[in-house]
Amino acid sequence: MVGMSMTRKALYALLTVTLLFSEALLAATIKDNTVININRFANRPSFQGNEFSLNDLQSLLPNNKHQINTSKQGISYFEVVSIGSSQLGWMNVAQSQKATELDHEGKQLLVVVFQFGKGHSAQASLNGQEKSTVHSEYICGHANTLHFCQVGEKITAWLHYFDFSGQEHGHLNVTSYSDSHPFYWSDSLYIQ
User: Fold this and answer.
1) Dist CA 188 CA 191 (whole Å)
2) H/E element holding 12?
3) I want to staple 4 with a disulfide (CB 3.0 to 4.6 A). Which of 8, 41, 44, 156 is the partner?
4) How remote is the C-alpha of 149 from its chain's centroid?
């Protein structure tokens, strides 16, 4: 750096620091559906430090795990699995449940959707207000061995998080499009 002006030295230092820390800002690098690197805890939604648990997810899946087709390329399972609010924290949603059991008041309202199999453009709407995924987590393994992905593993499922903060209740509809037949997947729930 001999002969560099102070401005150039400052810009060089800033660029170096930015490059060093930019890796930490990425949630993951994915290539051919395989995790290359991952920062699992980047921007993970929580309420007072409580996060949605994969143990809870296992208990919410159907007893007959054959409904979740692990050999299929596209989506084979798509469900709302939890509603989170600043009033109640995380409240799990059972398969085929039509409404939440308790009133979700408060400033924050988050929705977690579990998708097994590859799809695109998970979307959600609450009272007609449409949202895209604000956070996704990569899940690996088969229906009985789901876990957060590690480097080198193939992604088999996703947890999609949607943020409807500012709303407290209403009709929720979530959708995704599969890479194979059936192409359209959806679930709905009334949030009290």
Assistant:
1) 10
2) helix 6-25
3) 8
4) 13
Cα torsion through 20, 25, 27, 33, rounded to 10? -50
Cβ count within 10 A of residue 133: 19
Say if CB 54 and CB 146 are below 8 A apart: yes
- Angle ∠(85,137,121) on CA atoms, nearest 5: 90
Beta bridge partners of 31: 34
d(CA 77, CA 160) in angstroms, rounded, equals 13
Contact 134, 162 (CB under 8 A): yes
Model confidence, pTM: 0.78
Q: What is the pLDDT of residues 87-134, one digit of tens each?
A: 888 889 988 899 998 877 778 899 999 999 988 878 999 999 999 999
